[in-house]
Amino acid sequence: MSKPLKQIHLAAHFPGVNNTTVWSDPAAGSHIEFSSFAHFAKAAERAKFDFLFLAEGLRLREQGGKIYDLDVVGRPDTFTILAALAAVTEHLGLTGTINSTFNEPYEVARQFASLDHLSGGRAAWNVVTSWDAFTGENFRRGGFLPQEERYSRAKEFLATANELFDSWHGDEILADQATGTFLSDAKAGSFVHQGPQFDIHGQFNVPRSPQGRPVVFQAGESDEGREFAASAADAIFSRYATLEAGQAFYTDVKSRLAKYGRHPGDLLILPAASFVIGDTDEEAEEIAHQVRRQQVSGATALKHLEFVWNRDLSSYDPEGPLPEVDPLVSEEHISRGRAQVRMYRDPVAVAREWRELAEANKWSIRDLVINTGNRQSFVGSPATVARTINEFVQADVSDGFILVPHITPGGLDVFADTVVPLLQEQGVYRTEYEGTTLRDHLGLAHPDQRRAERAAS
Amino acid sequence: MSSSPHSHLHLAVALDGTGWHPASWREPVARPRELLTAGYWADQVAEAERGLIDFVTIEDGLGLQSSHHGAPDGRTDQVRGRLDAVLVAARIAPLSRHIGLVPTVIATHTEPFHISKAIATLDYVSTGRAGVRVQISARPNEADHFGRRTFPPFDLADLASPAGQERLAEHFDEAADYIEALRRLWDSWEDDAEIRDAATGRFIDRDKLHYIDFEGGRFSVKGPSITPRPPQGQPLVTSLGHQTIPYRLIARGTDVGYVTPQDAAEARAIVAEIRAEQEAAGRADDTVHVFADLVVLLDDDQAAAEARKDRLDALDGGAYTSDARIFAGTAAQLADLLEEFAAEGLTGFRLRPAVLGHDLPRISRDLVPELQRRDRFRTAYQAATLRGHLGLARPANRYAAA
Predict the structure, then answer these.
(1) What residues of chain A, 102 to 121, have a C-beta less than 8 Å from chain B?
(2) For residue A4, is the peptide bond before it cis, meaning its omega torsion is within 30 degrees of 0?
(3) Going by CATH, does the domain composed of A9-279+378-456 fall within 3.20.20.30?
(4) B394: which of A305, A355, B167, B376 lies 20 to 30 Å off by Cα?
């Protein structure tokens, strides 16, 4: 007997503050006006997506000591924009990236519980962690956290927030006008948490929200990050959207669940994925190539090379050959405020490899950056893209994808209008929302149900 | 710069739970089971907008509500539990068109960097109708929710002592720093910083983004904000005060101060004190509105309003008292009182409906028409932004080259 078809989960990532987003296209609109967010969210809801996803960065990126000016810069406050989007959507989940280093559990728990109430059970939290003093300069405590403690901070932060969410059970508010009893229990919301990161106690002041707890996402890829996700997350936002890498990541993470008493369906793997759609596969390939050239201007190519070389390369011609000089290996890095720089562990070797590639292919600096950069995840006609996505999900590359369009705010429309109907025809994607909460969309149990199951077993 | 005749009064409505009387939730109109839903708040704001009100404020706190100033009270017969006020305001913003939205934030325990971008974003989602009410918290139990600072117990009587004044000054100094950090962050992007210059590949002109380098007693903030300058440039900053130290904050940092005079003479004295502080702070030329807070019970005759208060007091087991004057009477009588107070230099009022479901419609449907008949209130919204409603110009950016 063949395996039953998996249902595909799809979500939309609002185009980010990086060079995937093409701001120079005539179709590119505002990245900050609410109308852009509303347009994007409504397209996602029209396509019956599970949720909208927002990234976050708490300090503007710098390179060579100056604010990085080549990508989209500027974004809204995560909680505020998600609460406003709850007013213009009915079903769409609302996932926000919120940092566990530069926040406090009591405040974040009240914000997520409030968002969950105000959206009727659609809130999700992508828990990220950082340690850098660079970002810390914007906050009360500065860069207080050693790098090796960032996951212990994140774990304890999430555990503490869960204690706060669970401090109300959902049956305390009687609001009995006749007898005058508002609360059934004067101690509702009581909590005590004592740990290395947080020593807090008192009463939480937001009663139990529809989902009990927000859905929890995790995005780290290190061994520690995977273990954190396996122990505590409902979904992973990963970057492995290709066949082999996706399957390897999927198998690895899902195999870690059993030791926490969890089932494979308790943790969804949802990689970020870009796409280009054309009338034909050939046309899509052509557009995809143009988009990659738009994403990597000459100026962007030089800046990208600087990540590896860790030197000021502004005097080089992006249409010319790669620098002969070797990368500068140093604790100090030319780029600050982005995670990408950690990808190059041996920059001298990368530089050597790139020089060889460029020479063999007669590539300029810009050609090299375009050709070694990430290719779009899905390129083709609507039929090709729909087929590939379905094949990937059935082959356990993932449980679905978080789609990242390169145009704001209309980049999702073509996917919603052409690919989604084909997935629906194939019976692997919903035609209507069946539930009301994000947990319903993702097929995740309510935390109270899990607790009851554990108590019964 | 005023968009309305000078004689017009400004009105704000303070939203809190089912209303300001602690027994308000017992009233049939109260909807106490809906306090955690968006629909409840949308309806309140729609009713206020129907009355052409300048703005609503939304109360908040970082602990359970309490009838004691300094500690939880363990009571189960009053409304307890609430939603984050900034999120409520954001949730309502797309559903309203004209009215200003002014949530409360607690300066003592929150991050100015986060709140600055939250209020800037509220300004974007409301297209220029955002403000913020900055409050301090000296409560030991709320500090324990954060575990970063420990505050000794206090009650209001202690605040008059030298030690109490010193403590109050520390909290308000921190709030002043907080407001300064918010304001600098809002200005940390010049309006035309986004250039999208395809020729050079630059999305922004980084010379138009500014480090704020704020160094305060309790925190420092580098900047710039991650959020571009909001539509109003500077969203409205407001604060409540009952004595000299908070009056100084109002004078130095805010656009609107809420005060609690019991009579006209006290209103005159408070306005004079704030104006003097304003001059001392070098802000004599800036518009700082001073609004009187009033708890209101409105009915067709005074006896009915007073009887309603008595009935609510009986339900709560004691007479309701407030920092603000409690008014019970008709809309015409309230209009008389507002005119009397306005003659002492107050430019507006923040009305706290005793029972939201009863007294807010009375404000929008009885009081407002009464004031309109007297040519003391707008008959239509005249401006597109909250600053505009209040006759405040869009301010120049402090970092922009002149």
Answers:
(1) 102-104, 106-107, 110-111, 113-115, 117-120
(2) no
(3) yes
(4) B376
